[in-house]
Structure formats: C-alpha cells, structure tokens
Design brief:
disordered N terminus, Amino acid/polyamine transporter I, globular, about 425 residues, mainly alpha, about 0% strand, 18 helices
Length: about 425
C-alpha cells in the first residue's frame, strides 16, 4: 500500500503539468512585436510614467482570460460558436469581423518586426518574410494541437531575453518614483500611448484563441484549477516582460537616461541598436532580436489560429488542429491566407514604429465589443455551478468599463491632439 501512494499523488501533478499551455502561450503571444514597440516607445518618450498602468492591468487581464477558460471547459465550444448559439449569426459575424481587423493588424506588426530585425543584420525582407511565413505554415501543418503548443512555447521562451536586457540597465529607482508621481494626464501623446498599451494587453484574438484551444485540447472541469494557474502565471509573465522592455527603454533612451536620446523611435531596428550596448554591441543586438523574433512568431501563430478557429466556428466548417490539412482545407486555408497576405503587405510597406502603435490603438477601440460579448456569454452560457457570483460580476463589469473608457478617451484625445 505504501508503494502505491507516491504514484497516486503524482498523477494529479502530472495531469496539471499536462494541462498547462493555452494560458502561457496566449500570454507569451500577448507580448508580441507591437507590444514590445509600444512599451519601448512609452519608455523612450515618457520614462517610467506608464509602468504602473502595466501592473494595474494584470488582474483584469487574468479575469478576462479566466472567463475564456470557464467557457471553453464547461461548454466545450469556441468563442464564435457560443456567440452564434446565444446571440445569433449577426453578432457572431460582427465579432469575427472585429477579430479579423485585430488579427491583420497584429500580423502586420509581427512581420514588420521580422523584416526590421533581418534588415538590422543586413538580410533583405525579400528573404526573411517568405522564410518566416513558410516556417509558420510548416509548424501548424503538423495536425496536432499539443505538438504545435509545445513548439510555440519553446519559441516563446526567447522572450525571456527581455529580462536580461532590463537587468543590465540598472534603473535609478529614485527616477522611477519621480516619474510615477508626475503623470501628464492632460497630454495628448501620453494618453494616446496609454490607450495603445491597453490595446496591446487586450487583443481580441486572445479571447478567441484560449477558449478554442481549451476546447480543442479536450480539457474537463477537473482541469479548471490547473488552467487557471496557467493563465495567472501567464498574465504576470507577459506584463513583466512588457515592463522589462519599458524599463530598458526608459533607462537608455528616456529623458533621464543622460544619453541625449530624442524620445522617439523610427524602427524596430533602432530599438535593438539602442539597447544592444547593454550586453555588448553584437551580443546585445542578438539577444534583443531573439526576444522580438520569438514574440513575433508566437503571436503570429496564435493570432492566425484564432482567426481560423473564429471563422470556422461561425461558418460551421471543420476547425481543429487534430485534422490534417486535407481533412480541413478551409481551416488551414484561412490560416495560410492570413499569414501569407500579411507577409506580402509588409513586404511592400515601410517599417514604421507608429504603424505598430496604431494597430494597438485599434484594439482599444474594439475592447467594448470583445469584452462586452465575453461577459454576456459568461452570464448566459455557463452552467449554474460555473457561473460568476454577483459581486464578481460587478467587479469585472466595473473594471472592464473603466479600462474601455480610458482606452477610448486616450485614443480619441490623442487623435484630436495630433490633428491640431
């Protein structure tokens, strides 16, 4: 009997480890190239002033994605499918249209980063973009969710390089305290960047992806607690990575850096070149580029799969990574079209930081649609044992309203300031 007990104890732990994945992966994807560029611009232009915002968004990020866990586990359906079932085809197509806009915007930023990194090392985008697109298609064509998840997580670990970059900056904590106490809340550019950071944290494709991934992975109510921990750790990790980029940029490029920085960035390559000396010119550039490349590729996989799942759920076509491409041609076709089309668009465009930031602001405008439908689904689709308590509902609704209002106000006020 004593020999059996250790095995019995290990099984829940092993099962919990096997459950982890969707939460970490979607959060690593959240620290995408657009997020990195926006955080770097915020640090370069405003020092550490936007750092508290990143920390304050952690609880709401967890609460939002935890809802997708509940819905995926207790209904066994993806986000688009549930919207169609409970609110009709019109709202399901509206939600997928918003998903499509967010996905294209995100993919453009990811491939912009790939092109920028390649050009930093003297490699033409005519080579890097097709290579990245083919790699992304090859990864997903394996026809196994768990294999794709493991591959993407390994790529995402490259993002840990941001911690190494931030560690070497040795930020002045007195400067951090001074910046946090001096918030220019009437400044148009400051509020616009705040809106961009909010949009960078809450991507519509995150909601679609994690709910569909949980359903596709076949998780059960017994796995709910483990997946919540997966999501919680991921939420802290993604915001910490973003904060690391902001801190590194503020310490080396901000007004208090003493380096004569101009406070505005023109390309992903410029960010890498500015931060490279922290770890040595060549190694620094390589470490930062590896982090950005890992973030971009993971986000491209997650965003494209979210779109393919969303379209499949609304139209009713086969939509699972457990099918081979020949068994679900439309599902894989949507994924391939999103990847190839975005790569082609970036091939013909310039590598501008403000293109990345603008894409995040678009996400801020989409927040009420995405989060509103998610909360409505939680109230209508969850079984009694999994429903939110009344107090939790009010807290979630209040926090969501506040963040949506701040995102919209910052975006509109920033746009008005740029027109004047």
């Amino acid at each position: 009997m004593n020999q059996i007990r250790p095995t019995v104890r290990r099984l829940p732990l092993l099962r919990s480890i096997a459950v982890w994945g969707p939460g970490l992966l979607v959060m690593l994807a959240d620290t995408d190239a657009g997020n990195v560029v926006t955080a770097a611009q915020a640090g370069a232009q405003w020092g550490y002033r936007l750092l508290p915002l990143l920390v304050l968004l952690i609880p709401l990020l967890y609460m939002v994605q935890e809802l997708t866990v509940r819905l995926g586990i207790f209904t066994g359906r993806g986000h688009g499918e549930l919207i169609r079932e409970h609110f009709g085809p019109v709202w399901s197509w509206v939600s997928v249209a918003g998903l499509g806009v967010a996905t294209v915007g995100s993919l453009v930023t990811e491939f912009t980063a790939v092109a920028g990194i390649g050009e930093t090392f003297g490699v033409s985008r005519s080579l890097t973009l097709p290579a990245a697109a083919l790699a992304l298609m090859a990864i997903v064509a394996t026809g196994s969710y768990r294999r794709i998840e493991r591959t993407a997580l390994l790529i995402g670990l490259l993002e840990l390089a941001f911690f190494a970059v931030a560690w070497t900056t040795h930020p002045d904590w007195r400067a951090v305290a001074a910046d946090v106490a001096d918030l220019p809340l009437r400044n148009h550019e400051f509020l616009y960047l705040a809106a961009a950071l909010i949009g960078a944290v809450f991507n519509p494709w995150m909601v679609f992806y994690q709910q569909s991934a949980v359903a596709d992975k076949g998780l059960t109510p017994a796995d709910c607690q483990a997946e919540r921990w997966d999501t919680a750790v991921g939420a802290v990790l993604t915001q910490s990575l973003t904060a690391a980029v902001l801190v590194a940029a503020a310490a080396t490029l901000g007004a208090n850096s003493g380096n004569g920085a101009h406070g505005s960035l023109d390309s992903v390559g410029e960010i890498g070149n500015a931060l490279a000396p922290l770890l040595g010119a060549q190694w620094g550039r390589l470490v930062f580029s590896a982090g950005v490349l890992g973030a971009a590729l993971v986000a491209a996989i997650v965003a494209s799969l979210a779109l393919a799942w969303g379209v499949g759920e609304v139209t009713g076509i086969r939509r699972s990574l457990e099918y081979r491409p020949q068994q679900a041609p439309w599902f894989y076709g949507v994924y391939a079209a999103a990847v190839a089309g975005s790569a082609a668009l970036v091939w013909a465009a310039r590598d501008l930081v403000w293109l990345n930031i603008g894409a995040q602001v678009v996400n801020a405008f989409l927040l009420p649609l995405v989060l509103g439908l998610l909360i409505a689904l939680a109230a209508r689709a969850l079984p009694d044992g999994a429903k939110l308590s009344r107090a939790y509902q009010w807290i979630l609704a209040g926090a969501t309203f506040a963040v949506c209002a701040l995102g919209w106000f910052g975006a509109v006020w920033g746009w008005i300031g740029s027109v004047k």
